[in-house]
Amino acid sequence: MLNPTLSTYAKAFTKLKRGGTKYGAAPHKPILLxxxxxxxxxxxxxxxxxxxxxxxxxxxxxNWLLLVNTAHxxxxxxxxxxxxxERVEGQCYWFLQPMPGCQINAHIKSVxxxxxxxxxxxxxxxxxxxxxxxxxxxxxxxxxxxxYFVATxxxxxxxxxxxxxxxxxxxxxxxxxxxxxxKHISKFTEEDVFVRNGLxxxxxxxxxxxxxxxxGMSLSSLYKHSFVDACHIVPFxxxxxxxxTNGIALCPNMHRAFDRGLLSIDDDYRILVSEHLTExxxxxxxxxxxxxxxxxxxxxxxxxxxxxxxxWHRSEVFKI
Length: 320
Known about the structure:
By secondary structure, the protein is α+β, with helices and mostly antiparallel strands.
């Protein structure tokens, strides 16, 4: 016999309010719930705060591509907002926490704008507890798949088992791996850009062993905050290039100095220091002490900063 709370949510999950379209009922809400369940199962979501980040948006898009075979328009922001309307025994089970000073009173259609005003979403306590139990979580996922995606659920299950899908393809493309499958895509959606930017911020520090490439500084906290930035060499707004070879890992003060042209890198991967820099050269953290020092590089040469990107930075940003 099912736990009464589990039975109540299973029933609610089969009766999600879905907008009617000429392609049939919208699949957005069940895909968001499946994506949250997946991130909890993988240990990516570990407390009851579901952030709008590359993992969530990318997992939503991955599951959409695997499950939806109709012409519905994929849109992460729609269920993230409208899931608030769902109820169990008259009580909501999805909530949004606005950023301080912000309000979310309507559907925000831009994922980047939504992320800037919404700190996180969170589940009702009883549902959160259910989804942290492996048996209950598996049962509710199966309810969603059997109710809404009976014809395509095997596509998802097989792809997950093989480790294939949208997030893997995006990561391979950012790393410029031979098996990357995205070379034919000339234009990315706003959600693609959001996901790729989030992956870039995570992948670049990882390639540099979570160290500042200039100083070797490695600093993080028990709250999972890293103080090493993923820095674009050629700004993304200029190049639309988010491959890791257009990136370098820098601590915030090095990042700022690099972006303002006080530091650069020569074609032997040694640090250049601008003659326009004014500082106390006797200070232990003086930038001038870095002059001629070779930067820390990734382990694989194909992940090194691209020479053409460094050349652009020297000619367009660095103050000689």
